[in-house]
Specification:
Elements lengths: L11 H28 L1 E4 L2 E3 H13 L3 E4 L2 E8 L5 H17 L1 H12 L5 H45 L6 E4 H18 L2 H10 L12 H16 L6 H54 L1
Parallel strand pairs: 4-5
Antiparallel strand pairs: 1-2, 3-4
Helix pairs in contact: 1-3, 1-4, 2-3, 3-6, 5-6, 7-9, 8-9
Length: about 290
């Protein structure tokens, strides 16, 4: 489709029907991916499905087995306080595996739905930015998994054993709520690291002026990063907030710099094209006169 070609606007009901069809495809893909990935063997002897191993892998990696405070070591034990805790954990694991496995289909259906409303170069940019978005989400999840959540878990359990005092109590935690918290923190951190890409797109397409990020703009952006990190982090000391805010702010600075550079390049290319077009228009009458002579 040429960039200046406009498709006839379809009735609202046609958009609703198309959206429902694509949502059905997405739900079907999530359901199939959830079934397949959940049944994949994490271990063959004995057989342990991946859906059973995922919670254990997250909990064993992110929840400390013991914490030391004031020279005393306290054992951490997970308990199931609700008879539905195991079911809820398996259900969340199944949905998580389904969404991850069906993510290519989800991206394809969303791009196909909004594609007709975009120009050709916008559709190409959307595909390119989709890969960047996946990478940034994975980066956020990795930071949460390897750095942020282990610190938060250790700190929260230290706070709980302070209550135990010198009574030598064992620190217990509800396994269902703990797993839900871990999944929320992983997803929230991944989504947080998508914002620099949004800022970059807004700058390059001149939806937001680059002057917004000049002067005190980046100072306000840093403060916003701290606030966002504080909202996500359940750690009241501020260290968890900094663990998220610092890499996020560095990504934001990089996004603004790249956006400014590519915007300037885009404007230079546009000015060069306009200059060439004016030169051609200015030379057209002269060429016509010479041909007549």
């Amino acid at each position: 489709m040429p960039e200046d070609e406009e498709l006839p606007e379809e009735p609202l009901w046609d958009h609703v029907v198309e959206l429902s069809i694509r949502l059905k495809r997405i739900l079907t893909a999530v359901f199939v991916a959830a079934l397949v990935l959940s049944a994949l063997p994490y271990s063959l002897s004995p057989y342990i499905p991946l859906v059973n191993a995922l919670p254990r892998l997250l909990l064993e990696r992110l929840v400390p087995q013991n914490v030391t405070f004031m020279g005393r070591t306290y054992t951490i034990q997970l308990a199931q306080y609700s008879p539905f805790a195991g079911f809820n954990i398996l259900f969340q694991s199944t949905i998580l595996l389904g969404v991850l496995g069906a993510s290519p289909v989800i991206a394809r259906e969303l791009i196909a739905y909004i594609g007709p409303a975009l120009y050709k170069h916008e559709r190409e940019a959307l595909k390119k930015y989709s890969l960047v978005a996946i990478g940034l989400f994975a980066l956020g999840v990795a930071i949460a998994y390897f750095i942020f959540i282990p610190w938060v878990m250790r700190f929260l359990f230290i706070m709980s054993v302070i209550v135990a005092g010198n009574h030598g109590l064992v620190a217990f935690s509800d396994i269902g709520r703990l797993f839900t918290l871990i999944v929320k923190l992983l997803i929230a951190t991944g989504v947080m690291f998508e914002i620099p890409l949004v800022i970059y797109i807004l700058i390059v397409y001149e939806i937001v002026g680059i002057e917004v990020f000049k002067g005190n703009g980046m100072k306000y952006a840093f403060i916003a990063s701290l606030i966002l990190g504080a909202i996500i982090s359940p750690d009241p000391t501020g260290l968890g907030m900094l663990m998220l805010a610092i890499p996020y702010y560095l990504l934001l600075v990089a996004a603004v710099k790249l956006g400014e550079r590519n915007l300037a390049k885009k404007k230079r290319a546009s000015a060069k094209a306009e200059g060439a077009e004016r030169a051609v228009e200015a030379g057209a009458p002269t060429a016509g006169v010479e041909s007549q002579q």
